[in-house]
Automatic annotation (TrEMBL), chain A:
Organism: Nonomuraea montanisoli
InterPro entries: Ntn_hydrolases_N, Pept_T1A_subB, Proteasome_sua/b, Proteasome_suB-type, PSB_actinobac
Family: Belongs to the peptidase T1B family.
Protein name per its UniProtKB record: Proteasome subunit beta
Organism domain of life: Bacteria
Key words of the record: Autocatalytic cleavage, Cytoplasm, Hydrolase, Protease, Proteasome, Threonine protease, Zymogen
GO molecular function: threonine-type endopeptidase activity
Amino acid sequence: MASHRDLPAGLVNQLFHNNGSSSFTEFVAAYAPELLPQRDKVLATPIGDQVPHATTIVAATFAGGVVMAGDRRATSGNIISQRDVEKVFRADDYSCMGIAGTASTGIEMARLYRVELEHYEKMEGRTLSVAGKANRLATMIRGNLGMAMQGLVVVPLFAAYDPDRDEGRIFSYDVAGGPYERDRFDAIGSGSIFARGALKKLYRDGASADDMVMTLIQALYDAADDDSATGGPDVTRKIWPLVSVIDGDGYRRLTDEQVAGYVEQMLEQRLISPDGPIAPLR
Amino acid sequence: MSMPFGYASPEQIMRDKADYARKGIARGRSVVVLQYEDGILFVAPNPSRALHKISEIYDRIGFAAVGRYNEFEELRLGGIRYADINGYTYDRSDVTGRGLANLYASNLGRIFTESIKSLEVEVVVAEVGDTSDGDAIYRLTFDGSVFDEHGFAAMGGQADAVATRLKERYREGMPLADALEVALTALTEPGGERPPVAQLEVAVLDRKREHRKFLRLTGARLERLLSQASAGGGAAEETAEEPPPGAAPGEGASGASGASSASGASGASGQATPPPTGPEGDIDDGSSPL
């Protein structure tokens, strides 16, 4: 049985009709809106505290690229609902997004966003500009505003390598959209205040990718140190932060072994000085 | 008894449509699709850098076409929509080359029977698996017939001759440079001139790549590959320059002979009678490099 018969009949009849748009979301919304997340329904009661939330994401640029890292904890109220949740997603070969807020809505958004970018690239034969990608994500966040008001808030952090400038770029958002381009580094989620404080002191201009991964691991540890919803490295279960590096060679996620190396090095140092590296005063 | 004015028998109509489509397809250059050790290779002589004959449909699926650009472009865009919608609705692993080939077949078949003019296209849908056993190459003709090809496929002008040359040289599990050499030899008339690098469209579905397997080979990478190919495959090419006397054209081309028998079954005549109608223009005899 051909699988296209499982799709809505109205949609299959339209597959070969050119509607003049290279957007996946627009095409599906026109012919089979039920396949897309339903944004306009009003919930009887806000359910924000009852569904798992993802927490801290940090990102920072280095010479010729950008690194993004996220902790692994998801919480529902005071309960830890998952210890190894993934909240940093590959969007395409040169970009990624991290999500904070309602985990399910965020994962769904990341999946749709990836299809949206790839769909454009295949239809048009060219990749979207970095600003174009960032703007497209803003529209998706804006579409979720109604649900955000009901407690299903999702706020992403977007990082991409810009081949025209040969550098990494970071964009942040709020519940109503954005994007806001960030210089050097940014953090989102419940532990972001602490992570940003750490990044302020540890960020070095022109650092290598290796140093910047270490900086982000340190910042995530500081966030977990002071925010109960952010998970630190789980040494007994061997659950490490997710770290993605994007540079001219494209997107790559560091393996567990690679991240374990950075984490062990940091923990060793923190046994001696628990608050981490000390920035020079003058 | 006289027939009403303007009457044409259904057999005649189908035959005319098939001949028209065949003549249109025969005007274009050939495209070759073949398996190599790490996946599937697509090669097409194409002077245009903007209008592609080879494209990516999904993570593991590639598309190649000959014939009228606007017609196969519609098929390509529809295929991408189909694949992306399926992958988003279910899972990325639920998008298969077989499903896409079925969709194209039903669409091509419907247009062939219902429209005045059939599409003047021939299409290959190729899917790369985790191992070479999982690779699939489907060739679809203008009337919606599907051929499950093994190892390689050729289509376009001179498809029979190209497929014969391809069959003589094709081996299972060739390295990429050798496979490219075989494809270029097959695409070139014996003693003819090869198309320059700038006018070649080459892409692979490489099973060793992460996420998306499709990759266009252009510029320096393609030139490096071609120089490897000519260094390593030079001797083999000389011996293979003359087709062995035993191999009669037609008998060698399994795909091409399959095409004519299948379209015969669907009511069209063989290629013995000249097409009564068809697009204007020269038919490609493989002598020009493009």
